[in-house]
Amino acid sequence: MADVSSHGGAESRKRVIFLGPPGAGKGTQAERLAADLGVPRISTGDILRDAIAQGTPLGQQAAPLVEEGGLVPDHLLIGIIQERLLAPDCAQGYILDGFPRTLGQAESFASMVQGGPAAFCVIDVEVPREELLKRLSGRRWCPSCQATYHVDNKPPRSNSSCDLCGGRLLQREDDREESVTRRLTVYDERTAPLRQYYRTRSCFHHVNGHRPVETVFQELRRVVQERP
Ligand code: AP5
Fold it and tell me: N or C: fewer beta carbons within 10 Å in the chain?
């Protein structure tokens, strides 16, 4: 497989993988950390939702799986990531939010990147299950610019439109109760084992995500900056 990413010097401090269950705050923190480090945040969930909204062949294939809370096949995700990491904005580093999500994805990805898993800082965000359910049921999302809100924790200025672009806010299809239950089961079975995979292969940091956004962010920032 092609080497999509070189490794060395300060860039190694700017390659981050976020792990954690649905609603843990990966997207919220990844966005802030990406802005702080000056690197792109690559969210496979956003890429798939965008493809679904545009009705591309990828979107048509992914739509039923995403909406029911299942996973999109590994080979499609690996292709998406391989292409995205070749873009010039990834040269100085990047933050992966939602990828890898299975052992198969992690192993393929390890063979794509020079330095393998050791080239990454892996952040595992943990939040109690009842809090995850509150966060997901109260999340609202802007399909136009992908901004995320929460009815209690981060309300938009107006109830129904995005502060950033004015788009109409919606509940994500996969934030409905039946899909959330499935997503949590899929996380436990398919994604949680990645903690063990990365713990011994990467700079691995476990963070308590059940604290204010700013507190969590300051800890993550310190971890990434202090990485040897
Ligand atoms: P994806 O979009 O990646 O969903 P996810 O991993 O389930 O994560 P979420 O976006 O639900 O939550 P988050 O942890 O980012 O939390 P957020 O910051 O938004 O993937 C969606 C689907 O795409 C998957 O189910 C799958 O079908 C498919 N897919 C994607 N990648 C794939 C892959 N690699 N392989 C196969 N399929 C793939 O926060 C949640 C809410 O909580 C927000 O309202 C936020 O405001 C609030 N909040 C955040 N932090 C805090 C805090 N500290 N305190 C209080 N509230 C907070």
Answer: C
The architecture in CATH of the region 9-40+100-225 reads: 3-Layer(aba) Sandwich (3.40)
Give me the chain's average pLDDT, please.
93
DSSP string, 79-117: HHHHHHHTSGGGTT-EEEES---SHHHHHHHHHHBTTGG
Residue 104 CA from chain centroid, whole number? 17
CB 152 within 8 A of CB 137: no
**Is position 183 annotated as part of the catalytic site?**
yes
- Among 33, 102, 150, say which to mutate for ligand 1: greatest number of ligand atoms within 8 Å of CB: 150
Which residues fall within 8 angstroms of residue 145, CB to CB, at 6 or more apart? 162, 164, 165, 167
Would you tell me how many other CB atoms lie within 10 Å of the CB of residue 97? 24
Protein residue closest via CA to atom 5 of ligand 1: 22
Which residues fall within 8 angstroms of residue 192, CB to CB, at 6 or more apart? Answer: 21
Helix axes 74-85, 57-68, angle to 10 degrees: 120
Percent of the chain with pLDDT over 90: 87
Q: Which of 135, 164, 190 to mutate to test the pocket of ligand 1 (most atoms within 8 A of CB)?
A: 135
172 lines ligand 1 (CB under 6 A): no
Residue 211 falls in the annotated catalytic set = no
Summarised one tens digit per residue, pLDDT across range 42-67 is 999 999 999 999 999 999 999 999 99
Listed in sequence order, the residues at least 6 apart from 29 whose beta carbon sits closer than 8 Å to its beta carbon are 18, 123, 125, 209, 213, 216, 217, 220
